[in-house]
Amino acid sequence: MSIYKYQVEKSNGEEISLSQYRDNVLLIVNTATKCGFANQFEGLEELHQKYQDQGLRVLGFPSNQFNEQEPVDDDNMEEACKINFGVTFPLFKKIDVKGPNAAPLFKYLTEEQKGLLGSNVKWNFTKFLVDRNGNVVKRFAPKDKPAKIENDIKALL
C-alpha cells in the first residue's frame, strides 16, 4: 500500500490521482486560513519554493472541522491563500480529516503515522511527510513549525 492509490479533488472539483506525485517527497498538511497556526502557510511556502526543484511537493488540504476556522469556500480558497499568505503550492477541496466522514487519504495517513494521543488529527496544520516511494514516514504536530521539518525533508530528497 502507498499513498499513490488515493484520488483527491482539486478545489475546482477535478479529481486527480496522487500517483502523479510519484517519485516526489510530499508534505501533506491540513490547513485553515483563520487558525492561530495560519502563519505556517508562509513557512510551508518557503519550503515549497526552496525544494520544489529537488522534488518536494507541499499539498494543502483545507478543513473546517476545528472551530470552523476555514470559512473560505473552495472556489475562493487558492486565491485567498495566495493573497493573504503568498501560497503557490496546491490546495485541494475542503475535506474532513477526522471522524466517520474523514477523507480516505487522511484515514490512511493517520493509520500509517499515529499521533501522540492516537491516530486522529487533533488540529489544523498537522503535517505528514511521505517519501519518494509513497510511504508515510513521519507525522508532525500542528505546533511544529515548517522550519523544524526541513532537515527531515532534506534527508528524503
From TrEMBL:
Family annotation (PROSITE patterns): GLUTATHIONE_PEROXID_1, GLUTATHIONE_PEROXID_2, GLUTATHIONE_PEROXID_3, THIOREDOXIN_2
Family matches, as Pfam families: GSHPx
Record's keyword terms, sorted: Oxidoreductase, Peroxidase
Gene Ontology molecular-function annotations: peroxidase activity
Matches recorded under InterPro entries: Glutathione_peroxidase, GPX_AS, GPX_CS, Thioredoxin-like_sf, Thioredoxin_domain
Xref: SUPFAM superfamilies: Thioredoxin-like (SSF52833)
Record-annotated Thioredoxin domain positions: 1-157
Record family assignment: Belongs to the glutathione peroxidase family.
UniProt-recorded name of the protein: Glutathione peroxidase
